[in-house]
Amino acid sequence: MSEHSVPPAPGSDVLVRVEHLKKYFPIRKGAVISRLVGNVKAVDDVSFEIRRGETLGVVGESGCGKSTTGRAVLQLHKPTAGRVFLEDTELTALSPPEIRRLRPRMQMIFQDSYDSLNPRHSVRKIIAEPLVVQGVMPADKIRDRVVELLELVGLQASHMVRFPHEFSGGQRQRINIARALALNPDFVVCDEPISALDVSIQAQVVNLFEDLQKQLGLTYMFIAHDLSMVQHISHRVAVMYLGNLVELTRRDKLFHDPLHPYTQSLMSAVPIPEPRLERKRKRIPLQGEVPSPANPPSGCVFHTRCPLAQDICEEEPPPYREVLPDHWVACHLADGRGGSKIAVEEIR
Prior knowledge:
This protein is α/β, with parallel strands linked by helices. It is 32% helix and 24% strand.
C-alpha cells in the first residue's frame, strides 16, 4: 500500500499511535548455505491510532495479519519498518531493556487459555510472576494482590492453590486476564480471547472486559473473528485484508454503511436475529482463495476477489484516505456516498 496519512482517533488523547508498520518474515532456502528467497508480508504499511479508554476492534479473515499487528505493536515481534508510539515514547526506537521497563504499561491476553498458562505452576504463582519479575511489590504484599486480582475477574481466593488443568476454559481465561492486569497496564492487546470458549461463556468474558475497562480505564486492541462480539465491545473497528488496513471507522458507521467491498462482504455474512429481514438480505460471497502474503497481488491486494475490480485496481494501490469524517478507506471506488455499495448491489 502506498504511503498515507495516519487516521486520527476520535478525541485528542491518543495513547497508541502506529505509523506505516510493516512486519515481514523472511523465506530462506538451502540446508547448508541459507539464502533469502522472499518475504511473507504479514503486515504491510498499517497506520492507526487508539485513544485512551477506547476499544479498537480488529477484524479480518485468518492469516490477514491481525495477531501479527498486535504483537508488533507490543514489540513481541520486532517490526521490519514503521514506528509505534505509546503516548510520546517511540517503542520501536527502544532497546530490549528499555522495552522491558515499559512492559507494565502494555500487556497481552492470548487466544489459547491453556497453552498460555504454565501447567506446573499454581494460580498464585502464575498471577504473581509479573510482580516478581518487575520487582514492583514487596514479597509480603504479593499474596494480597493476587487475591485482589482473582476477585476482580470473578474468581475466589481459594482458587490460587489450584492448577490450570483444574479449571474450565472460561475460568482459565479469567486467570490470564488477572495476570495481564497485575501490573496495572494502560493498554491491553486481546488476541482473540474468546474464540476458544463456549458461546455461553463468551458473553460473560466480553462483559468482564467491558466492566474492567470502565473500572480501570483500560485501552484495548480487541482482535476477533466474531463480528457480532466486535460490534458489541468496540468503539471503532479496523478491517484488515492480506496485511493491509482497508477500512477504519466508528463501530456504528462500519456496521450500518461499510464502504469497502471486502467489508461489505464480511457484514453480509453476519446473521440478523430477525428471520424476515434475514430472508430479504442480499449476500455478497467472495470468489476464489486469499492470495499468499508471500506473493501478494499488484495494485489493490483485494482486486483478485473483488466483484467491482477495474483496471486501475490491478495497476495502482488505492490511497488510504478519509472519504467521510472519521471514515478511512483504501478503495479506488469508495466515494463517501455509498457508491461502491450501490455498485455491488447492482451486479447481484
